[in-house]
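Q: What would this chain look like folded?
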Amino acid sequence: MYPKVKPALARAWRDLETVQFGVTPAHAVVLGPVDTATGALIDRIDGTRGMELLRTEGGAMGLSEGRVDGLVRGLAAAGLLDDATAGGPRAQAVRSRPGTLERLEPDLGSLSLVHREPGGDLRGVAARRGIRVQVRGSGRVGGVIAAVLAGAGVGRVEVLDGGRVEPADVAPGGMTPGSVGRLRAEAARSMVREAAPGRGPRAGESGGPEPGLALVVVAPRDGLQSWAPDPQSAADWVATGTPHLYAGVLEGTGLVGPLVLPGATACAGCMERDRVARDPAWPRMLVQWRSAHRRRAAAACDLGLAAAVAGLAAAHALSFLDGELPASTGARWEAALPTLHWQPTPVRAHPDCPCGADARAEPVGVAAAAGSDPPGGP
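A: My prediction, written as structure tokens:
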């Protein structure tokens, strides 16, 4: 074991005997009492020394072996310790790619806060490499989402979209001006490849079966399809149990969510049934809006708002792929120009929907989304 205090958390002394790791409340840890010798030893737990050398150096400072071992155990229990050799074979494979590690260093720091066990950051990156995600849409929102997911180390990011790239599709971090006129699917493949930190696994490369879709991100260029999704378009995902997340911009309003966990949280069918129950005129208006959007040349999609939606949606997607349920699970977050105040709206399962989510006594994610904002917002 080569223990290392996680560098992602800034360190400061609150007083002569108390040290705080981290600035923000979400991950900050206070440790004490810590004497001068123990504080000096903490500075040496940097991944370059094994336990024997740490015990020797601690002894030279007047610390017993038991005190040194106890300090290391305490740091580990507080989620403050990493191990330069931990993570298993898959993590070791990532270590053998220095170029990839340099690109993903900020992501590794973030993952080390979420996965508190030693080596959790590299295990998280290694797990992302084996994941397959599909993004439906390559416009100002979908293109950026796909690039962010690929850049964050997701090994297989597929983008589905038709037609050719138009000037209005171009966005920083997404489709480039040079891609205008190219087939969207072809341009998206190039964009994802350029964003990725190294080559991801190719189809059939491992010799095993094609990995199933871990997530579908629905971010169509027509924001109406995210605001009021067609249940038929999601029927296959619901039937196969494929999680899917909606995101988009419609008429100056950005939305992220809901993240649908088929059979556990409300689906597009639930949303449609609920809206019809509250507004009988909804089906009639929806037919007109969908027809109008097919004729409309360009949507009202502010670039700043699109970037915010894409970033938030990608972050929620990564949180889910890393094993956590983000705030968009069973809820939709909305922000409208010009104030851009993000607000959650619970999306509830409908008893008449065949998806079966209403059978759950407590819908996943709804209770958290309906209450106060989580620390740091959505």
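Confidence is low (pLDDT under 50) at residues 366-377.
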